[in-house]
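Anyone else keep sequences and structure tokens together like this?

Example one:
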Amino acid sequence: MAWPLEGLIVAERGRTLYEKIWDSRLVAEDEGEALLYVDLHLLHEVTSPQAFAGLAARRLSVRRPERALALFDHGVPTENQQAGAGAVRDPEARAQIEMLTANSEAFGIVRFDMGDPRNGIVHVVAPEQGRTHPGMTIVCGDSHTSTHGAFGALAFGIGTSEIEHVLATQTIRAEKAKTMRISIDGTLAPGVTAKDMALAVLARIGVDGASGHVVEFAGSAVRALSMEGRMTLCNLSIEMGARAGLIAPDATTLAYLEGRPAAPRGEDWRHAVDRWAALASDADAVFARDIRLDGSAIPPMVSWGITPAQTIAIDGRVPDPAAIADAAQRIVAERALAYMDLRPGTAIAGLPIDRVFIGSCTNSRIEDIRAAAAIARGRRIAQGVRAMVVPGSGLVRKQAESEGLDRILVAAGFDWREPGCSLCVGMNPDRLDPGERCASTSNRNFEHRQGRNGRTHLMSPAMAAAAAVTGRIVDLRDL
């Protein structure tokens, strides 16, 4: 018989981690558009000048200056930073640095200047300072703000007009995204890293595979990652088309945060830990999409094309566009082959390289430099190769030097630099020359990304170091 529905109580389904953070920071909602409170606003010199100019034009103040942090990373040279803006040869970059200095001073925003060991890439500095906490909303005028999702924070990049809005109101307009879970289980093979995991996901789902979603990374292989590895994974979620990436906080998160300068202390720490314990997706939470990968089957990965999804295993061969069924993807593959000067069927292993870059907000932390130094120890970079290592912050640089990693790298022929975005973005003196092929630990291999007509192959720090000492792309497990 049919039972009447009147009076029937339907249990509400569980919430995802994203939904919990969203609900906790929701100020107002109207017809699908929401206003979220912002816990941390990160500023750098390139995307902030127009926003501050907008405030001045409207005679507005910064609503919560204590919830902002100003840093210098995109346009800074990676040499002679003690000279400050005077070391910056490009007049536009120098003007941007001087404007952020003046604006942060005028509005009472904490700033770490060039040459200050606390300065560096925004997405390296905020976590190491303990400014990034689980459950926060974090924004920055930089797409790779998703990095902070490694701590269970909802973090995403915003545009210049949005920067102005956050400065003035400490809120951001947003549309709620769909949810997606990517579970990676199993034990990673030796030599396989979080960078390989991210590139394997990209090869599987593509650069728009997570479009319109916030991705939560889960599974035993993700849980086994260090915080550095988790930051790498969430950093690259934006390359999948995701609005943000998330990993639920756990004991690894707490161990990283405890005792850092801006982390809670004493009783505040204990209360914070209690709050953060609830920041996990409920067992009955429903995701719009659910994808699983076997982490034990992931090999070292290398990009061959002009998107991070155009990636293959180190023992793979460059694909033939004629075999690609989708017309749009086939066109992109043909364009990639022409730009990268490759032929279908070419083995990626053995491809000669000219430059090596170890750095960027993806892979410039102490763990990354240790991995590169482990390969470089007792070896020399190949003749004709130029290789550079750029720490993500002054503190990472100091720690590496205290461990003797700089001496190992310099003895091997690497150029040991000061912190900054460097060769990742091509907005400073570190750039590829036309036609140069680079083994890079950065996040994007777009056309001209690292310099006009430069050719970028994305890979892990150990793989990049292996390329440096052999002069070609190789399987680091063979060394």
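And example two:
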Amino acid sequence: MPVQSKKEIIAQDIIQKIRFAQYKPGDYLPSEHRLCELYGTSRETVRKALAQLTSLGLIQKIRGKGSLVLDVQNFTFPISGVVSFKDFDKQQGKSSDIEVLNLSERTSPSTFGGHNLNRRAPSYYVEHLRYIDNIPSVLNQEFLFKEAVPIITKADVINSLYSYLERTLGLNISYSTKEITVERVPERIAKILKLTDDHYAAVIRSMSYLDDTRLFQLTTSYQRPDKFKFIDFERRKNAARS
């Protein structure tokens, strides 16, 4: 398992304190100086941890006052970010169970989500099921191109796919595009997710890219409608500062 950085340890500890109402919405976190004392670290490390909490929408920096805890619901699905479920749950102080149903070598499709990819590439095909409250809730089907991901194991998928790709393989994952629809799904998927007779699910199709703009991953995510919810937190970039 990758060793956590001091920044990650601090961020996750504060997240837990927010989650269990030690820091409530409307409260200010201790000052940066006090946090440095509490965690025995530098101000730069504390600021990086606070920046992570800011990006998650959990706090807002108020000039002259400090870091205000926001009254923002936790995401159910990380719809805007490029992050694995395992990493997202870890950031939110939650746990998840993942079952790998299939890991095999296949050729990627030439079209995906209405897009012509202009090629078929040797890939790993990964199918994994995520449980929420012991209910099968999210089924992911992924193609990972072997030119970027030469090897992958079930343990890599379960422990954290993106941590493996970034920390072990050294990939620089940059951005993804996502399309969300509601569709009637095939019988097999309906059975896996234990859907009702109408067999409808939320479907998210993602195309993920490296920082050199290479497409390396195709993901189709099927989600139970009764478990699918997202709240999009977005910070506006001030054009005058760019």
